[in-house]
Amino acid sequence: MIRIEKLNQKYGGTQILWDLDLDVEKGSCTCIMGRNGAGKTTLLKCLMGLLPASDGRILFGGKPIEGRAAQARAHLGIGYVPQGRDIFPLLTVEENLQIGLPARKDKARRIPQRIFELFPVLKDMLHRRGGDLSGGQQQQLAIGRALVIDPKVLILDEPNEGIQPNIVRQIGDVIRMLNEEDGLTVILVEQKLGFARRVGREFRLMQKGRIVAADQMAKLDDGLIRQYLAV
Ligand SMILES: Nc1ncnc2c1ncn2[C@@H]1O[C@H](COP(=O)(O)OP(=O)(O)OP(=O)(O)O)[C@@H](O)[C@H]1O
């Protein structure tokens, strides 16, 4: 579904991603892991078109998208939940969710009910300002907003950063449900091993801007953890 070939990215003179290759199959739930600074967020931003790559190819459903703007990638069906959530604090929950509606193929004007089934708290707080929500509720809103476009793939960058454990569990359950029941392809950047193991079905390990290991989640053993994840 997504194929990245020989992706390179630089911040000024500093190269961050090096000839990076990544294949993500339709229906998979892939967890991208690696130490701080490995380039995980940079990779997601290049995939979303929020950072320009120096060179390389990004294919979505077999078609090159590397020349397309971020908004066009959303219209193609790539939903993105950025690190830090980036919800609009002065807009209501409803307005935050409505932002995605024009990107839907069917041009539906109403927020899909499925989002409120997954996150009932968003229905209860529909008219509250985004900025008044707790961190966990804001994260649920950020995921809801990405789902409004009816994406084919959902990309999440550390959805659990700074969130209380009961909401982390709920978010994990929702990601699993979206993947298993709705058939949504998921790409998740995650630092917490327990969450990654519970939610991810495959892993990719990153080190210094490269993918250095890839397998089924069950094969993520202590040796790999020591080598690429332990701090
Ligand atoms: N705007 C920027 N300008 C210059 N360098 C940057 C910028 N953003 C990130 N970097 C550098 O790029 C490298 C990769 O950062 P990135 O945020 O992609 O890593 P990460 O694996 O997501 O780390 P983390 O787990 O800490 O979020 C780091 O060395 C970081 O310092």
From TrEMBL:
Phosphoprotein found in the keyword field: no
A Pfam family assignment: ABC_tran
Keywords, alphabetical: Amino-acid transport, ATP-binding, Nucleotide-binding, Transport
Membrane-spanning segments: none
Database matches in InterPro entries: AAA+_ATPase, ABC_transporter-like_ATP-bd, ABC_transptr_urea_ATP-bd_UrtE, BCAA_Transport_ATP-bd_LivF, P-loop_NTPase
Biological-process GO terms, alphabetical: L-amino acid transport
One MF annotation (Gene Ontology) recorded for this entry: branched-chain amino acid transmembrane transporter activity
ABC transporter domain: residues covered: 2-231
Gene3D superfamilies: P-loop containing nucleotide triphosphate hydrolases (3.40.50.300)
Protein name: Urea transport system ATP-binding protein
Organism: Microbulbifer rhizosphaerae
